[in-house]
Design a protein that fits this description.
Chain A: Residues 38-145 form the Aldehyde oxidase/xanthine dehydrogenase a/b hammerhead domain. Chain A: Residues 1-12, 173-184 have a biased composition (Low complexity). Chain A: This is Xanthine dehydrogenase subunit D. Chain A: One of its GO terms (molecular function) is oxidoreductase activity. The complex is a heterodimer of chains A (811) and B (171). With 811 residues, chain A is of the alpha+beta class. Among the domains of chain A are: 45-145 and 244-277 and 284-307, Aldehyde Oxidoreductase, domain 3 (Alpha-Beta Complex), CATH 3.90.1170; 401-501 and 669-809, Aldehyde oxidase/xanthine dehydrogenase, molybdopterin binding domain (Aldehyde Oxidoreductase, domain 4, 2-Layer Sandwich), CATH 3.30.365; 511-650, Aldehyde oxidase/xanthine dehydrogenase, molybdopterin binding domain (Aldehyde Oxidoreductase, domain 4, 2-Layer Sandwich). In chain A, the strands form nine sheets. Chain A has a seven-stranded mixed sheet, with helices on both faces. In chain A, strands 12-21-20-19-13-34 form a six-stranded mixed sheet. A five-stranded mixed sheet of chain A has the order 1-26-25-24-30. In chain A, strand 25 (524-530), helix 13 and strand 26 form a beta-alpha-beta unit. Chain B is built from six helices and five strands. Chain B is of the alpha+beta class and 171 residues long. Chain B is globular. In chain B, helix 3 packs across helix 4 and helix 3 (96-104) crosses helix 6. Chain B has a five-stranded mixed sheet, with helices on both faces. Chain B has two domains: 3-76, Beta-grasp domain (Ubiquitin-like (UB roll), Roll); 79-164, DNA polymerase, domain 1. The chains are: A alpha+beta (811), B alpha+beta (171). At the A-B interface, helix 1 and helix 17 of A face helix 3, helix 4, helix 5 and helix 6 of B.
């Protein structure tokens, strides 16, 4: 059964460190950097096996339809085709999967619920053969009416997406919902995935104290993660009836937990190894082709590779939830917030994915980084026939930030106050309470971040005018389209600030695992670090080498490939990996250090009294006292022995939000960033040029200054994309209209401005090294800052992102 | 069909190539050169950028048969290509753009990197002292989703400065 030779492109150990002592706070080169610039770094799509087959997925052309019949006969008869699978071929009783709610069929069963849903699989000896065979599968559909927004999802007689949903709590329902289905406070209707109200104080009474009240309805379009490395992987059947899967993912163990039951295999027979990951941004939290490749490999007895192209990738992963947000804020004449009320409706699409957690995040961050004691918040996610939505960088907090920051500008204008000054008057600080009642018990430099971006000098005016008086159209809105030489171009400046939680929340048992081994290799002490952390580009592996050097006093660090032979690292999401797997590596290095020192005391304790009395450290390959006296070299202490430790490490516990009031210690840590955007708008054509997008962010501790600034640049640019260009267009029939990089635009280098970054390091004493998760916060405030600048340039309300030329010129 | 062309100075041959296969597919799946990347296969992202008789092209949009008898340079051959261009002046195993991308922190996930390196190397070859606007224009066909391009700008400026100086500095 199993192939005789192994695959090419399997990850290898990364040896780092000869010649560098770079520890925590330094910016050493990436351990995978050389491989990445020479083309030798193997991504999941680069995996290759001598006799491998290619898998292909047949997807639904309809958003909602009953499957009457599937005829695979002709497809199976094509030369070169080895297998065609449908739902009926699934080998185990478990046929569905999901991150939180197992509502997603591996292959459609009787009904398709969204455009692009997987219906059948083909394995063939060439990708084109597989594609052509898939086109010969005859599926008879009967289209059903679609549910595509709140009105159609919750209206009288609305078709239910999951009439038999079994994720509701056991016991008597709070009331009886439509169709006799049970209903609970967090699921008032079966087409609502999850709902979270948050009520604190008395918003109604506080509204009476307001001198001004502003309201607004805002809309956020469906953004795509658009990671560049499409979904891909290689499944290799093994002698023991199991499977080896090489895959790009954000969380190996979460995949494993979902894959194994569907294959009917125990988890130990599904061995997963992380291949090179071409970006993620939330889009690899859910499974894509993992189970499909394993099913085909197990069925054919041959290695199977699946690689999505960009078109399929748009259907292969969840997107950022589109949202409609209604907000009301009040303030007194002297610029103090009195209250806020809001209602956030997120479109979760056909399957649950991460919707419940996104709802928790949207609601708990709905008030932003502001002190407001009287709040009345409701957030919910719908089931519709639109594409499934789930995790994307910023995770519910992005949508809220766009709305509350627009509200802050409206209030400032109403009060005739400077928008930054108004924000600073209401800015949260250490000790402030979240709407959930949770105190922010770490530095919260909201006012300071705003001060810093505002204090920065403004970029030069009219940069398109060169010294010789020539016009460089590349610096103008419209660029090389040569649409203006400056006429009709108006500059605008806008500000925004945001708050984002770090790590998993609401009582989730969030942990990471590390295994560290210290031994002498070639006369040098070497630390081997093994975790299951998904390196998706963020630079977590670089930080692991730095932590190992700092904690163990070595230069040489070897990184073991990430796989499921070590315990879970949790997800590379929620800005959590430096905190969590960094924290686990630190913790386990400390365990290794204790073992080394114990061994040193046994061997050499009688040689020097300091072994018993002093605080001992590992530095420069030696055991030293805190006074700097050298007691022994690590080489002598270790000898032929390897010292190894493995452990799980947890952040402090959180608690669920109360289902009715939303109160609770729900989040571990908060992260803050502020932006100032400078834009130039061609007010006649509605074209926008973002000239500069300055960011200030508190990162607690810059573990790797170069990498953390890189995160801030990247997050800022994704926020810019949401502001002015990025949207998956879904038509009223719930079909995706633009699944390509021709029609779904992400910022190019020509669209992206300079991004000056100001990094603050105010330690959070709860976190390892005082660090603060950094990846997401800059994605939040970037979008509303750009929009505030466009509003300033045009005087238009612009309540929707992405903004389009027709919104700006209102044709 | 059979295709024969030169890749990174070496003659490569592939048999039983289906006429619809792209140069990118043949490089990646038949010639064991997966360095050029497949991010869109629609000619929009630039991650498969290679030199075809010196011209930067999206390998996904070139039919493999069109490469017959021609010279292809991919990221795997970039260091040797740059070395040959610059003669013996240069030391080190990497092309100046490759070293600069590493030093500047221009690599995150790295999926766009091979295409960007080929494009940036071609820019500096053609325009040894590009302005920022020149860099942005030349690289506007190469999408990156991780870096926000700031450190890519830094890297190209650095590579140009080092190339202009005749030899890369040791950082």
């Amino acid at each position: 059964m199993a192939p005789a030779t192994g695959p090419t492109g399997t990850p290898t150990r990364l040896d780092e460190g000869a010649g560098t002592r770079a520890g925590v706070g330094d910016s050493p080169l990436r351990p995978d950097g050389t491989l990445k610039v020479t083309g030798d770094f193997a991504y999941s799509s680069d995996m290759w096996h001598e006799d491998m087959l290619w898998g292909c997925t047949l997807r639904s052309p309809h958003a909602h339809a009953e499957i009457r019949s599937i005829d695979t006969g002709e497809a199976l008869r094509q030369p070169g085709v080895h297998a065609v699978l449908t739902f009926d071929d699934l080998p185990a009783a478990t046929t569905h999967y999901g991150l939180e709610i197992q509502d997603t069929p591996v292959l459609a069963h009787g009904r398709v619920r969204h455009h692009g849903e997987p219906v059948a699989l083909v394995a063939a000896d060439h990708p084109e053969t597989a594609r052509r065979a898939a086109a010969k599968i005859k599926v008879e559909y009967e289209e059903l009416p679609v549910v595509h927004d709140e009105a159609s999802a919750l209206g009288e007689g609305a078709p239910l997406l999951h009439p038999d949903r079994d994720d509701l709590p056991q016991g008597p329902p709070a009331s009886s919902g439509p169709g006799g289905t049970p209903s609970a406070p967090h699921v008032p209707h079966p087409n609502i995935v999850h709902r979270q109200p948050i009520v604190r104080g008395d918003a109604e009474a506080a509204a009476g104290r307001a001198d001004v009240i502003v309201t607004g309805e805002y809309e956020v379009g469906m953004q795509d993660q658009a990671f560049l490395g499409p979904e891909s992987g290689l499944a290799v059947p093994a002698e023991d009836g199991g499977v080896d899967l090489y895959i790009a993912t954000q969380w190996l163990h979460s995949d494993l937990r979902q894959i194994a039951p569907v294959l009917g295999l125990p988890e130990e027979k599904v061995r997963m190894t992380l291949s090179g990951v071409g970006g993620a941004f939330g889009g690899r939290e859910d499974l894509s082709m993992q189970i499909h490749a394993c099913l085909l490999a197990l069925r054919t007895g041959k290695p199977v590779k699946i690689v999505y192209n960009r078109f399929e990738s748009f259907f292969g992963h969840v997107h950022r939830h589109p949202a409609t947000l209604w907000y009301e804020h009040g303030a007194t004449r002297d610029g103090k917030l009195t209250h806020m009320r809001c209602r956030i409706v997120l479109d979760g699409g056909a399957y649950a994915s991460a919707s419940p957690a996104v709802v928790g995040n949207a609601s708990s961050h709905a008030a932003g980084p502001y002190v407001v004691d009287d709040v009345d918040i409701e957030a919910l996610a719908l089931y519709t026939n639109n594409p499934p939505c789930g995790a994307m960088r910023g995770f519910g907090a992005v949508q809220a930030c766009f709305a509350y920051e627009a509200q802050m500008d409206k209030l400032a204008a109403e009060l005739d106050m400077d928008p930054v000054d108004f924000r600073q008057r209401n800015a949260m600080s250490r000790g402030s309470l979240m709407p959930t009642g949770q105190p922010v018990d770490a530095p919260a430099p909201v006012a300071e971040l705003l001060r810093r971006v505002k204090a920065r000098p403004l970029p030069m005016e009219a940069q398109w005018e060169s010294v010789g008086g020539e016009t460089d159209v590349r610096a103008l809105p419209g660029g090389l389209s040569n649409t203006t030489h400056g006429e009709g171009v108006v500059r605008g400046v806008g500000y925004a600030v945001g708050i984002k939680n770090v790590c998993y929340s609401e009582g989730f048992d969030d942990y990471s695992t590390a295994r560290v081994r210290l031994e002498v290799v070639g006369g040098e002490p070497v630390a081997l670090v093994h975790t299951a952390m998904a390196e998706v580009g963020q630079g977590g592996i670089t930080v692991h080498t730095q932590i190992a050097r700092t904690e163990l006093g070595v230069t040489q660090v070897t990184l073991h490939p990430a796989d499921t032979r070590v315990g879970s690292a949790g997800s590379t999401s929620a800005s959590r990996q430096t905190y969590m797997t960094g924290g686990a590596v630190k913790h386990v290095c400390e365990l290794v250090r204790e073992k080394v020192l114990r061994r040193g005391r046994e061997l050499f304790g009688t040689h020097h009294p300091a072994w018993a009395t002093a605080e001992l450290l590992l530095e420069g390959g030696k055991v030293v006292t805190d006074g700097g006296e050298v007691l022994a070299s690590l080489v002598d202490v270790l000898g032929e022995e390897a010292v190894e430790a493995e452990d799980e490490w947890r952040h402090r516990a959180t608690a669920p939000f109360d289902l009715e009031t939303g109160q609770g210690f729900g989040h571990v840590q908060y992260s803050f960033a502020a932006h100032r955007a400078v834009v130039e708008v061609d007010t006649e054509l509605g074209l926008v040029k973002v000239v500069e997008l300055a960011c200030a962010q508190d990162v607690g501790k810059a573990m790797n200054p170069q990498a953390v600034v890189g995160q801030i640049h990247g997050g800022t640019t994704q926020g810019l994309g949401l502001a002015v260009m990025e949207e998956i267009v879904v038509d009223p029939a719930a079909k995706v209209r633009n699944p390509s990089f021709t029609d779904y635009l992400i910022p190019t280098i020509a669209d992206t401005p300079t991004i000056p970054v100001d990094v603050l390091e105010l330690a959070d004493e709860h976190a390892p090294y005082g660090l603060r998760g950094a990846g997401e916060a800059p994605t939040l405030s970037s979008t509303p800052a750009v929009m505030a600048a466009i509003r300033a340039a045009t005087g238009r309300a612009l309540p929707r992102v992405p903004v389009r030329p027709e919104h700006i010129v209102e044709v | 069909m059979r295709v024969t062309f030169t890749v990174n100075g070496r003659r490569h041959e592939a048999d039983d190539v289906w006429e619809g296969e792209s140069l990118l597919y043949v490089l990646r799946e038949r010639m064991g050169l997966p360095g050029s990347k497949n991010a869109c296969e629609q000619g929009e992202c630039g991650s498969c950028t290679v030199r075809l008789d010196g011209e930067p092209v999206c390998a996904c949009l070139v039919a493999a048969g069109q490469a017959e008898g021609r010279e292809v340079v991919t990221v795997e051959g970039l260091a040797a290509y740059a070395k040959e261009r610059e003669g013996s002046a240069r030391t080190g195993d990497l092309a100046p753009v490759q070293q600069a991308f590493l030093d500047a922190g221009a690599v995150q996930c790295g999926f766009c990197t091979p295409g960007l390196l080929v494009a940036a190397d071609e820019l500096i070859e053609r325009n040894p002292q590009p302005s920022d606007a020149d860099i942005r224009e030349a690289l506007s066909g190469n999408l990156c989703r991780c870096t926000g391009y700031e450190k890519i700008m830094d890297a190209v400026r650095l590579a140009a400065a080092r190339t202009d100086d005749g030899a890369p500095e040791v950082v």
